[in-house]
Fold:
Amino acid sequence: MVLTVQSTQENKTPETIIYVDSNRVKCSGENNDHPLVYYTIPEGGEAICGYCDIKFRKKDEWQK
Ligand SMILES: [Zn+2]
Structure:
């Protein structure tokens, strides 16, 4: 299961955060608009896609 959260803050561009079960994620853009890339989410942190700035976080970190 993948949960996508869109949040908008004043004077900031909307950010997309995807919460995942595994620390291995892959991204090809929201509309498959960049090459498929794989990231590993660091312990307690997040991975940010270098192409589209989508952030990936481990779901269990978010639930704390
Ligand atoms: Zn991406």
User: Anything to note?
Assistant: Residues 27, 29, 34, 49, 51-52, 54 surround zinc ion (CB under 6 Å). Helices lie at 59-62.
